[in-house]
Design brief:
The chain is 58% helix and 14% strand. It has a single domain, classed as P-loop containing nucleotide triphosphate hydrolases (Rossmann fold, 3-Layer(aba) Sandwich). It has a 5-stranded parallel β-sheet, sandwiched between helices. It is built from 9 helices and 5 strands; from the N terminus they run βαβαααβαβαααβα. The chain is an alpha/beta fold. The chain binds adenosine-5'-diphosphate (ADP).
């Protein structure tokens, strides 16, 4: 079973690229942001808890996120594999994922990191705000906060998989299909 982490800062194009990879490799797409937004829409207790963190550009606590992620993986026992989008976002989440998968005699096969300069990210997120309806995209202060949280808490996740030699960096600026082609090459090399 393939376990692929699509990594990168907010606005790097993880959601866009996930859609192509999901259909090419028949994977289940697990976007923790999308799952949280589903809970917010349904006004579930988990949604109510997550909303205040998300609206302020902070991370939802690890304990909540890890529990939810495991439940989602367990829902798809017949899946060919998973693409993780927006998870793991802290080293603690990465360690929890590694532990969870090792209990299943599996592992993260690859972390593919989409590299995009900060100024480009801000422009993309403000542009996305026009159609996404996401409060966290519409406010420049919240965008900056999310980018700072990425740099401080999420970026070290890359080193975690770099040290295991299960990492690739891909230029996230360019034509969407060219970026997809780079990702496909990287995935094909590990399967
Ligand atoms: P983006 O990548 O554009 O920031 P996401 O949809 O991945 O958007 O995440 C939106 C928000 O959801 C994050 O700012 C955070 O509050 C919350 N969130 C998503 N995934 C996680 C996670 N793995 N751990 C903690 N919080 C998360």
């Amino acid at each position: 079973m393939l376990h692929l982490i699509l990594f990168g800062p907010p606005g790097a194009g993880k959601g866009t690229q996930s859609a192509f990879l999901v259909s090419k490799y028949d994977l289940v797409h697990l976007s923790t942001g999308d799952i949280f937004r589903g809970h917010i829409k349904a006004q579930s207790p988990l949604g109510l808890e997550a909303k205040s963190y998300m609206d302020n550009g902070k991370l939802v606590p690890d304990s909540v996120t890890i529990k939810m992620l495991k439940e989602e993986v367990n829902k798809h026992s017949t899946a060919g594999g998973f693409i993780y989008d927006g998870f793991p976002r802290t080293v603690a989440q990465a360690e929890a994922l590694d532990q969870f998968l090792s209990e299943r005699h599996e592992k993260v096969n690859l972390l593919a990191s989409l590299e995009v300069p900060e100024e480009e990210l801000k422009l993309r997120l403000l542009e996305r705000a026009k159609s996404s309806g996401r409060p966290d995209d519409a406010n420049e202060e919240v965008i900056q906060k999310r980018i700072n949280v990425y740099k401080e808490e999420t970026f070290p996740v890359k080193a975690h998989y770099q040290s295991k030699n299960r990492w690739i960096g891909v230029d996230g600026v360019g034509k969407i299909h060219e970026i997809t082609d780079e990702l496909i090459k990287a995935v094909d090399a590990v399967i």
